[in-house]
Amino acid sequence: MPASAELGPVPDAIARAYDPSRFRADGHRLIDQLADHLAACTSATDDGLPVIPWLAPADMLPRWPADFADQPADDLVDTLTATAAGSIRLHHPRYLGHQVPPPVPGAALADAAAALLNNGMAVYEMGAVATGQELAVVAWMARVLGMPDTAGGLLTSGGSVGNLTALLAARQAAAGFDAWTDGADAGPPLAVLVAATAHYSIARAVRVLGWGAGGAVEVAVDERYRMRADDLTRAHAAAVAAGRRPIAVVASAGSTATGAYDPLPAIADFCAAHGLWLHVDGAHGASAALSAQHRHLVDGIERADSVVWDAHKLLAMPALCTAVLYKDVTRSYQAFAQEASYLFAAEREWWNLGLRTVECTKRMMGTILYASLRAYGVGFFRAYVERVFALGQAFAARVAAAPDFELAASPDANIVVFRYRPEPELGGAALDELQAVIRRRCLEDGRWYFLSTRLGGALWLRTALMNPLTGVRELDGVLDAIRSAAAAVQR
Ligand SMILES: *Cc1c(COP(=O)(O)O)cnc(C)c1O
After folding, report:
1. Ligand 1 pocket, mutate which of 160, 315, 358, 388 (most atoms under 8 A from CB)
2. Could you tell me if the CB of 310 is within 6 A of ligand 1?
């Protein structure tokens, strides 16, 4: 027998790596460490625990050397504990930062289970249970939005990919030619009508689709940064005058910078009158539909041809978990194929989800949301949305009442844009520079985490209040911290 045909026992390095008792022991230790991390975050009240242990990028690299040895060097749990220690703490009540939530802890456990099972899902056989769970959460999401019975969709890896997926389907439905098969230039140049306040993934998707910068025709916004539906007629005419065929309006619910909700009923009316596809980017704000108190913000979303909704934003899931929903689910088959929309459901391989997503192999993201919905109940998700929206209102009220602060716009959601303006005569570049210095100081100090953003040509401070454990103490405290930071630089 040739030597190459002999198969010895499983090598030690492999047997040790897959040893269930090692996994069990590591797992128990890791959960204890993560629970300690969570406890330290949620009980952090003073300056003891930084929300962000800031290190400049160049100082970070040497901490994680790439000198991997042939033999095991470091304990898994030690490395992960060190990772947690140096990471931004989303469960810290002073985390007033990006639109990334502190995941509800059970979802992290579900994520670990999904990682071990690793049912890839491109084809049904590779993820049968996960496919069933994904279609269940997607159906629930469509129902929450009030979409019709014909609605359905998929989960994908993030709102940016979701927006691209929906616009691919929009193009196939509305272009009037088969761009999928014959190419983007097989017909007249296309365009979508969109406000400048839309997320940059829309501008990227337009370029990926081959329409160039002119493929996004700008619609004006009002003083609260919402799309002006009464400007759509002008924008439509401008697109036509530029030799383009407008196929869709992209509305934000809400927008990234300020959380503003575009007026969906009026936009839907315009789309119906002009035969345009309506895509609603609800990555951040579609979750408002869970609350009777906030549902009015998304009224009209049920008329959208496609909707993107990130569960890893206001449904408190770990990244990534995004729904792409279609009013007519048969449109979902056209995003990545030239397929007739009149095929009967029974003729489609609706169980092989990979036909309708950018991904081939996909994480079991539906499992994580499904298990969380079961474990916590819809009431948790409603309470989460209402809490963080209430934080937005409470913080905006404080800013508006403070004579040395200024509010950019009264918020629809949990995103507040504001700035420190100790003297009304302070303006222009000096006012911008003050915000930049405050932001940099607080970031490097690490006790508070908030952002800055450019809005209307000026620099503002910005917070997305994503942590439902944030309270009054933090809302007042961050204003004082900003005053102190400003005083320190002015000295
Ligand atoms: C966050 C966001 C996106 C991008 O979603 P990712 O999941 O980060 O890719 C798109 N649109 C809006 C309105 C967003 O807030």
Report:
1. 160
2. yes
Instruction: Judge contact between 231 and 260, C-beta under 8 A.
Output: no
What domains can be seen in the chain, in order of their start residue? 20-103+378-491 (3.90.1150.170), 119-376 (3.40.640.10)
Q: Is the CB of 276 under 6 A from ligand 1?
A: no
| Neighbour count for residue 466 (Cβ, 10 Å) | 23
Tell the residue nearest (CA) to atom 3 of ligand 1.
159
Please give the C-alpha separations between residue 393 and each of 272, 313, 400, 410, 451, in angstroms, as whole numbers: 34, 18, 10, 8, 18
Distance separating alpha carbons of residues 311 and 369, to the nearest angstrom: 8
How far apart (Å, rounded) are the C-alpha atoms in residues 396 and 475? 9
Q: What is the mean pLDDT of each run of 10 residues along the chain (491 residues)?
A: 80 97 98 97 86 96 95 96 97 96 98 96 92 98 98 98 98 95 95 97 97 97 97 98 98 96 98 98 98 98 98 98 97 85 71 92 97 98 98 98 97 98 95 97 96 96 98 97 92 62
Give dist(CA 150, CA 147) in Å, integer.
Answer: 8
Please indicate whether residue 197, judged by its CB atom, sits closer than 6 Å to ligand 1: no
d(CA 267, CA 344): 31
Give backbone dihedrals phi and psi of 462, rounded to 5 degrees, phi first.
-145, 140
Among candidates 84, 81, 77, which has minimal Cα distance to 50? 84
CB of 99 closer than 6 angstroms to any ligand 1 atom? yes
Q: Is 441 exposed, middle or buried (0-12, 13-18, 19+ CB in 10 A)?
A: middle
